[in-house]
Amino acid sequence: MGDLIPLFPLGTPLFPGIVLPLQIFEPRYRRLMRDLLAHPEAGDRRFFGVVAIRQGWEVERVAPAEALYDIGCTARVQAVRPQSDGGFRIVTVGGERFRVLDVVVGDDPPYLQAEVEWLADEEAAEEAAGDTDGLAVPGTAETAPPCDDGLDDVVASVARGSLELLTRGVRDLFTRYVAEVSDLGSGGDGDRGGGDRGGAGEPTVDAETTVLLDAVSDDPAALSYLVASAALLTTEDRQALLAESATRRRLALEARLLRRELTLLQTLGAVPVPLQQFATPMTVN
After folding, report:
1. Which of 106, 132, 164, 223 is most buried as measured by Cβ atoms within 10 A of its Cβ?
2. 30 Cβ partners below 8 Å, 6+ apart?
3. Distance between CA atoms of 30 and 96, rounded to whole angstroms?
4. Where is the Lon N-terminal domain (predicted)?
5. Within the chain, what is the greatest distance between any pair of CA atoms?
6. Axis-axis angle for helices 152-185, 220-230 (nearest 10)
7. How many Cβ atoms sit within 10 Å of the Cβ of residue 211?
8. Treating both helix axes as pointing N-terminal to C-terminal, what angle do 220-230 and 235-243 enclose, rounded to 10 degrees?
9. Fold exhibited by the domain 3-118
10. Are 271 and 232 in contact (CB under 8 A)?
11. What are 43-56's pLDDT values in tens digits?
């Protein structure tokens, strides 16, 4: 048996550290907010689990366990503003990742709940990079074997260097990607060869993105979650990034995804539109 937590299905996953504002208007989620507000403000129970919807838009009309992805992230309530109509405007921040073991459907409470197991916290920088597969030990022709005492420091150094290079690479790719999307979204015809703008040699991004990148510049895990949440990726791609527990492997996957997206942007000259924008209400037909 895992911990029982309330669920809030959305069209896209939430990531740790990412701010998620929501407007609560459905009766079942108004009840959820009242239940959460009944917990002490100083406690740690004012949260719900966000899980992405795998298929359909009305989860209760299909088997919830099949309609939802199995990896989610808690949304911890930071601010609540009750509305005159009985709804709420809230601000949440992504917290801990979890795996859904079972979905519980009932009349009281009216919202979905899930039994979950908590996924391991992100490793320290050395451990996140310490997936030594493919890392070469300096002065040898072979990749690193399982660490012996004499190799611990060497492998850790190689791993840290690998993570730093990977972090810089993803930051540079994301900067180029944001500039490309911004240029195409504004209808510009800027040079799409490698991300240069106006011959300046550097991609230009908006001030908000620059501030966000600067804020996570020293935190590879935070950078990886920022990229995962901000890039115009499919739900499947984002879900794969959320499910990845090692920062180094998540960044490596993001590097591949960003190169793919840059190639598509530069080839097609169009910004992708999230599939949710084409969603229409379900009918009896």
Report:
1. 223
2. 24, 86, 87, 88
3. 23
4. 2-262
5. 69
6. 30
7. 9
8. 160
9. 2.30.130
10. yes
11. 899 999 999 998 65
pTM above 0.85, yes or no: no
- The CA distance from 155 to 146, in Å, is 9
pLDDT digits (tens, 9 = 90+) for 251-276: 999 999 999 999 999 888 766 655 44
- Spatial distance between the Cα atoms of 239 and 247, rounded to a whole number of angstroms: 15
Tokens standing for 67?
Answer: 């309609």
Q: Which residue has the higher pLDDT, 79 or 275?
A: 79
Residues, the chain, total? Answer: 285
The three-state (H, E, C) secondary structure of the chain, written as one string: CCEEEEEEEECCCCCCCCEEEEEECCHHHHHHHHHHHCCCCCCCCCEEEEEEECCCCCHHHCCHHHHECCEEEEEEEEEEEECCCCCEEEEEEEEEEEEEEEEECCCCCCCCEEEEEECCCCCCHHHHHCCCCCCECCCCCCECCCCCHHHHHHHHHHHHHHHHHHHHHHHHHHHHHHHHHHHHHCCCCCCCCCCCCCCCCCCCCCHHHHHHHHHCCCCHHHHHHHHHHHCCCCHHHHHHHHHCCCHHHHHHHHHHHHHHHHHHHHHHCCCCCCHHHHCCCCCCC
Neighbouring residues of 130: CB distance < 8 A, sequence distance ≥ 6: 123, 155, 156, 159
- The values of phi and psi at residue 191, to 5°, are -60, 125
Q: Which amino acid is at 36?
A: L
Q: Report pLDDT for 93.
A: 97
Q: For 1-5, 192-196, 257-261, which range has the lowest pLDDT when averaged over its residues?
A: 192-196
Relative to beta strand 19-24, strand 47-52 is unpaired
Could you tell me the residue ranges of all domains in the chain? 3-118, 125-268
